[in-house]
Design brief:
- By secondary structure, the chain is an alpha+beta fold.
- It has a domain of about 120 residues: Pleckstrin-homology domain (PH domain)/Phosphotyrosine-binding domain (PTB) (PH-domain like).
- Helices cover about 30% and strands about 30% of the residues.
- It contains three helices and ten strands; from the N terminus they run ααββββββββββα.
- The strands form two sheets. Strands 1, 2, 3, 4, 5, 6, 9 and 10 form an eight-stranded antiparallel beta sheet that branches.
- The chain is elongated, with a radius of gyration of 27 Å.
């Protein structure tokens, strides 16, 4: 026998794919992913239940006037809120954990946070505790100084809220303006 004939006789057809095994693995994987998603959702809801003692978010005052004249405005992203000083302790109650676009307006009355598709809120000037540049907040880490963090009091809790402007060069002006407003409102309260 010549080597070519021997090779031709030894050739077999390729293995047929066992579709039932493959479908079983795919269904199992989809069930596993669904379980993980459900567990994450339950954790988010549980965190909201634990934070249910947080009072409702203040809304912007209706009355126009000199206190409502904008000092600064900012368009960008809201990245969430955490317990002050604990950048991984995300607050989800009252929609504070929902990321969204944001329009910030700083006035003498306070900080107006307008979030399309999420809950808007207002931080009165007397509750602002300061602002700083930082690199991260729960779920978002950027380069040093990439986030504007505003610290404010809500009920008996201090909260850090993270914002990122579409034009990050604005962040330093915001830190200065909020800290100046904070100093002037503390002086007026004494």
């Amino acid at each position: 026998m010549t080597p070519l004939v021997f090779i031709a006789e030894a050739k077999e057809s390729a293995q047929v794919t066992d579709w039932s095994d493959r479908i079983g693995w795919i269904v199992g994987l989809l069930l596993f992913i669904t379980l993980l998603y459900w567990l994450m959702r339950q954790g988010w809801k549980w965190r909201g239940t634990l934070q249910s003692g947080l009072p409702e978010l203040p809304q912007a005052p209706e009355a126009p006037g000199e206190f409502r004249e904008p000092k600064l405005t900012l368009s960008g992203r809201y990245h969430g809120s955490t317990t002050a000083g604990q950048w991984l302790d995300r607050i989800v109650a009252h929609g504070l954990g929902t990321r969204s676009r944001v329009e910030l307006t700083l006035t003498d009355a306070g900080l107006d946070v307008v979030r399309p598709g999420a809950t808007d809120f207002f931080v009165p000037a007397g509750r602002l505790r300061g602002a700083r540049l930082d690199k991260g907040i729960a779920g978002k880490v950027l380069t040093e100084g990439g986030l504007l963090i505003v610290t404010w009091a809500h009920g008996d809790k201090l909260i850090d809220s993270g914002f990122r402007s579409d034009r990050s060069a604005e962040h330093a002006d915001w830190v200065e303006a909020i800290n100046t407003l904070n100093i002037s409102t503390e002086g007026a309260a004494r």
